[in-house]
Design brief:
heterodimer, A: 6 helices, 10 strands, B: alpha+beta, Alpha-Beta Plaits, Dna Ligase, domain 1, 19 strands, about 30% helix
């Protein structure tokens, strides 16, 4: 009899499979959505993708992740492919800027990938954000999948999270987590002509692993 | 235990003393003292040792007026060498005047009123009474007068220099052989840093270049300012290599000089429960590599400025350094109690997108820009800001937050309309 046969449950899952350490984002609904094996949040030592259209809350979620990581005194990195990072809103979300490396790549995705490669192999980072939100699909689709395998291999067995922020999924099978964000509602206050942007309600769905439920959270305006 | 003291106003005393002992104390510019316990086998009796020292000093320039004294204590030898000419061995200090001791003016007056003129008279005074009148300094002077102070020598440490220069026989035009020479200098200097428990926070390399058109040599100087002190020659060499690759010399090198700025190394008390962070020297090396790709000014740590400027931040060169005190001193930090909701993130379009905006009643109703167009569903504004009018970087603009069917944007108008970024 195969000794491994007894380890396979009726659901086809291996009960002693590796349980990953996770980093909670600090957003209760999102952490609840990402609960797995009593661990909440983004899995460490893995690639996570945050996907969404314009104003869907990708940056808000990334800032929360960076804030949670820097609050634990970890050093993080933001690889800013299109020079779009805003330190003011990041600081308002709780990111400790003194623990963040900001790399501006001047609209060059190739430079961003090389910088990510150096940082991942240097090690010691809590979260490395690779921001590809404004990279056109004709360029992001041409990134060889070998890059993502290389990145996955570099961070496995480390506490580093590689968060890809993008319009559409590009890491394919290399990503352990994929979150799809949508903007549900925008709240304005005041009479027409004197209105003020107050907050935005955002919805998160986990596409990988697939979950039947979604999570909603609110992001307050900076004003 | 015997000590020798050399006193000369003009001789190079460290050089003379180092001919007899590797460790000596330079008490004053004109006085050195050292132990002579191991010299008997070489020179014989204490008197012969003293004569050998005197001969050595006379042979040196400026050593004509040299006094050499040998005594059982260092301070007795110093007193004797300063007050007895020529060679003195185991001298009697009894008849020396009390003014040869480091007395204060008040003490000198009191001792004179007591009729104390010689060291012998001072040595015979009751110790308790002297302590009551002059305190511990009086007791110390009496011990000096008795020749009874046994103290370790303050060993003279020559100042270590961290600057070396190599003159080349033939000009070097390639970086690789130049790095070979730089590595040699760096290895020596880093070994010196290590032996002195120091590190360097600034490295300067000066390349003297061959210039056939001028008689004077042109120079190529590069200075690396390190965010944390380092002393690993491999890391420093790699940083220099990357810097010279980015800023190569314009002509072949005929001489090079390397200097390090020594500082105390950074010491950090880490905690067992603190997360692992990148080693500062390794991180600096990684960021230097990335700077080589994306540019010098595009890597650093974001820093907010206290300003109402539309973009009140800058990118500061350096490496991120977590402060463990912030976690331990603030138990209610965000690590333990994360925020329940988040602030909305913002993304800049750099450079801002020029836009065409249709207005009704001075409010935007439709916008067209590169990749962004549509009917404005809602708008908040205008938020008028201006500042720095006293400088060349003045700004004066009206901002609007607008909602389009596919996103939320911030637009502004100064002389033209622009889309500054999107809320995300």
């Amino acid at each position: 009899m195969n000794p491994n046969a007894a380890r396979v449950t009726t659901l086809g899952l291996c009960p002693d499979a590796k349980i990953r350490e996770c980093l909670p984002t600090g957003l209760a609904p999102v952490d609840a959505l990402l609960t797995q094996d009593q661990a909440q949040g983004f899995p460490r030592g893995a690639i996570s993708e945050i996907v969404g259209t314009e104003s869907s809350g990708r940056t808000t979620l990334v800032h929360s992740l960076l804030a949670a990581s820097t609050a634990q005194l970890e050093v993080c990195a933001y690889i800013d492919t299109d020079d779009s990072f805003d330190p003011v809103s990041a600081a308002a979300a709780g990111v400790a800027l003194s623990q963040l490396v900001w790399i501006r790549c001047g609209h060059n995705a190739g430079h961003a990938l090389k910088a990510a490669d150096y940082l991942l192999h240097a090690g010691g980072f809590g979260v490395i954000v690779l921001d590809l939100c404004q990279v056109p699909p004709r360029i992001s689709n041409r990134i060889p999948i070998s890059y993502w395998y290389r990145f996955r291999r570099a961070i496995e067995n480390t506490p580093t999270i590689l968060a890809l922020v993008e319009k559409q999924p590009i890491a394919k099978s290399c990503a352990t987590l994929m979150l799809d964000l949508q903007r549900k509602k925008t709240q304005w206050t005041g009479a027409p002509g004197f209105s003020l942007l107050r907050e935005v309600e955002l919805e998160v769905a986990s596409r990988k692993p697939v979950r039947p439920i979604t999570a909603a959270f609110k992001a307050r305006s900076l004003a | 235990m015997m000590f020798a003291c050399i006193h000369s106003p003009s001789a190079d005393l460290p050089q003379i003393a180092s001919a007899f002992s590797p460790s000596f104390e330079q008490t004053a510019p004109d006085t050195v003292v050292f132990r002579i316990d191991g010299l008997q086998r070489l020179h014989g009796s204490p008197r012969q040792i003293a004569q050998a020292i005197a001969q050595e000093a006379i042979a040196k320039p400026g050593g004509e007026q040299v006094n050499v004294a040998i005594a059982e204590t260092a301070d007795a030898a110093i007193l004797a060498a300063r007050n007895f000419p020529g060679v003195t061995v185991a001298p009697s200090l009894n008849d020396l005047d009390v003014s040869t001791l480091p007395l204060t003016e008040e003490m000198a007056q009191v001792l004179e009123s007591w009729g104390i003129y010689t060291l012998e008279q001072l040595a015979q005074l009751p110790e308790n009474g002297l302590a009551e009148r002059f305190g511990s300094h009086g007791v110390h002077l009496q011990q000096l007068a008795r020749g009874a102070i046994y103290r370790p020598l303050k060993i003279f440490q020559p100042e270590t220099t961290y600057e070396d220069r190599i003159e080349l026989d033939h000009p070097v035009s390639l970086l690789e052989p130049l790095l070979f020479l730089i590595a040699r200098l760096l290895n020596d200097q880093c070994a010196r840093l290590l032996s002195n428990a120091m590190a360097a926070n600034e490295v300067t390399i000066r390349l003297e270049l061959e210039d056939c058109t001028k008689h004077d040599r042109a120079e190529h100087i590069r200075t690396l300012r390190l965010p944390v002190p380092m002393r690993e020659s491999k890391s420093l060499l790699k940083l220099l290599q990357m810097d010279l690759e980015t800023h190569p010399p314009t002509a072949p090198t005929i001489a090079l000089a390397l200097s390090l700025k020594p500082v105390h190394p950074r010491t950090v008390q880490t905690g067992i429960f603190l997360p692992i962070t990148p080693a500062p020297d390794k991180l600096e090396l990684t960021l230097a590599r990335i700077r080589g790709i994306v540019g010098e000014t595009n890597v650093g740590v974001p820093q907010l400025r206290d300003s109402y400027h539309p973009q009140p931040f800058s990118l500061v060169p350096g490496i991120p350094i977590p402060n463990p005190q912030s976690l331990s001193s603030n138990p209610q930090s965000p690590a333990s109690q994360p925020p329940a909701t988040s602030h909305q993130g913002f993304r800049y379009f750099r450079p801002p997108l020029p836009a065409t905006v249709s207005l009704v009643d001075n409010r935007p109703i439709r916008i067209t820009a590169s990749g962004i167009q549509g009917k404005v569903l809602n708008a908040a504004g205008p938020w008028r800001t201006s500042g720095d009018w006293w400088t060349t970087t003045a700004w004066n603009r009206d901002e609007w937050d607008i909602a389009l069917p596919h996103g939320l944007y911030r637009i502004y108008h100064d002389s033209n309309w622009y889309v500054e970024g999107s809320y995300d």
